[in-house]
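INTERNAL TRANSFER SHEET
From: sequence group
To: structure group
Subject: Glycosyltransferase, GT2 family

Please process the attached sequence and return the structure record in the designated field. Keep the field labels unchanged so the import script can parse them.
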Amino acid sequence: MSDRVTIVTVAYNSSEVLRDLIASVPPSADLAIVDNGSHDIEALRVLCDRPGVRLIENGENLGFGTACNVGAQGSTRDFLFFLNPDARLRPDTLDRLCAAADRYPDASAFNPLIREPDGSTFFRRRSVLLPRSRWMPRGAPTEDREITLLSGAAIFARRSAFEAIGGFDEDIFLFHEDDDISLRLEARGPLMFIRDAVVIHGGGSTSGDRAEVAAFKARLMGQSRVQTTIKHGIPFARVRNLADAGLQAMNVMVLFSRRKRAKNWAFLRGVWDETFSRGKT
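Return from structure group:
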């Protein structure tokens, strides 16, 4: 059934971890790797020089959602599978997801079981865009079930549903784009968790982990937090985001960690900048 699937992954200095993903993809699947201006582009070109793999070079970092949309363009297959570059498939992952899509024809999108290298599982149960009443129980479900949120590490979506909502919101550069698309896909049909379809999450760093990088990501997260909470009508979004970010920045527990301190202050700056660039509440 893998010939029904286009896999899309976004690369940003990710050639080292992509090797395992590429090796795990069945030959009949269509794999689109979208590069967002990596410094290791030459290594990536060599890695992608094989049948069934398409390398799309953006030349610059357009953001995660935009790159996903670029990778999905032109696909004629039934399903789009958005995967992190440090993920790996099991031999039956795509078959099980396709079978689940046939089993649940009303569902718009699916999450497989995401397993970490140490055997533990990862499951997203809550979001700032969801009221507490819609948070999921702790821990990955033990059987197929409807869920309220998708993990962006492995989103398996019907192409028809993805195209109907216009794909990822390209105004969201990075972070919370999976929360946003979860809510929009759910409006087209239920979101389902598929227990017997497994993706191994590599856990490797794909773009660096220095204090400066952590701060850069945190600032983007702050901006995206404001964007998405306002977009989805969260009450008092600006005030709540500023309060949460301020409390994090002043947390005495991070005073002795340069990385955490830089990260929390950058998050506050991102929230502040995005809040006041959009006007007052």
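Handover comment: The chain has nine helices and ten strands. Residues 211-231 form the longest helix (21 residues).
Transfer complete.
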